[in-house]
Amino acid sequence: MISDYLEAMLEADTVEETWRLHTKRMAAYGFDRLLYAYTRFKHNSTMADPVDSLILSNHAPAYAEGFVNEGHYLNGPMLRWSLENDGACSWSWLKDMALEKTFTEGERKAMEYNRKMGVLAGYSIGFKSDSVRTRGGIGLTAKPDMSQDEVDAVWAKDGREIMMMNNVMHLKITSLPYSSARRNLTNRQREVLEWVGDGKTMQDIATIMGLTAATVEKHLRLAREALDVETTAQAVLKASFQDQIFVLGA
Predict the structure, then answer these.
(1) What would the mean pLDDT of 116-141 be, rounded to a whole number?
(2) Whole-number Å distance between alpha carbons of 146 and 220
(3) How many angstroms separate the Cα of 166 from the Cα of each of 93, 111, 124, 172?
(4) What pTM did the predictor assign?
(5) CA torsion, ordered 140, 143, 145, 148, to nearest 10 deg
(6) CB atoms within 10 A of CB 143
(7) How much is the pLDDT for 28?
(8) Domains and CATH numbers, the chain
(9) Is the pLDDT score of 126 beyond 60?
């Protein structure tokens, strides 16, 4: 029952537990492999660097690693759809694109990779966002023995519930802390970013911390390098999103 799913989601207190509950529930509809991506650092029409994204998958490790490491996530038309649209989309439209030969070279390679790995039928969902920098999407891959027509029949019957569950999962995950591949800031780097975030000037920070302005700038430069950003404002934002500043006991 959907009420059981919702209750379990409300009680989940980690990303891992939330993902486990969701993958199990989606498998009941025939979607046995999921790939979810979420970022707060989207650039124009492309996904952010995977290092700055939360990527969850219950595909075989070889598929997920290849999809990201070989760059197919940049060209896969299913993912692109979720970056540019809200709501759900059947993968049936890919057949029309193939017949019309409108795939780019990158899209063609991504589609060939999916076919080789048994990712053939399914649905994409793009989640609504209130920021141009924030974006989330999920690909629901059906069991290998299901055709796209069979998947579409499942969606016609249960699509409303499936959409509701995926939206709940997305909202839950984005409310929970998560760790990603990152370079941790030093205590000094955290402190100077916290003072910048509080609106202090360079000279203010130097006085408060008993340092020279040049030393403060050095810590800010190293923080920008660690976070792979260009400006101090971007560093404050990214460190805040990563829960590296304004954290008790940091």
Answers:
(1) 90
(2) 53
(3) 21, 24, 11, 10
(4) 0.73
(5) -10
(6) 17
(7) 97
(8) 2-174 (3.30.450.80), 187-241 (1.10.10.10)
(9) yes
Q: What are phi and psi of 82, to 5 degrees?
A: -70, -25
Taking the C-alpha atoms of residue 13 and residue 131, their distance in angstroms, rounded to an integer, is 25
Chain mean pLDDT for the chain? 87
> 120: pLDDT confidence band, cut at 50, 70 and 90?
very high
CA–CA dist 32, 54 (Å, integer): 20
CB contact set of 126 (below 8 Å; sequence gap of 6+): 81, 82, 83, 84, 85, 86, 87, 89, 135, 136, 137
- Return the pLDDT at 70: 81
Residues contacting residue 111 through CB under 8 Å, at least 6 positions apart: 76, 77, 94, 98, 103
Residue 31 φ/ψ, nearest 5 degrees: -95, 95
- Reported in sequence order, the residue ranges of the chain that DSSP labels E, i.e. its strands, are 31-39, 53-57, 87-90, 122-127, 135-142
pLDDT of residue 118: 92
Map residue 70 onto helix, strand or coil: coil
Nearest CA to 82 out of 143, 41, 123 is that of 123
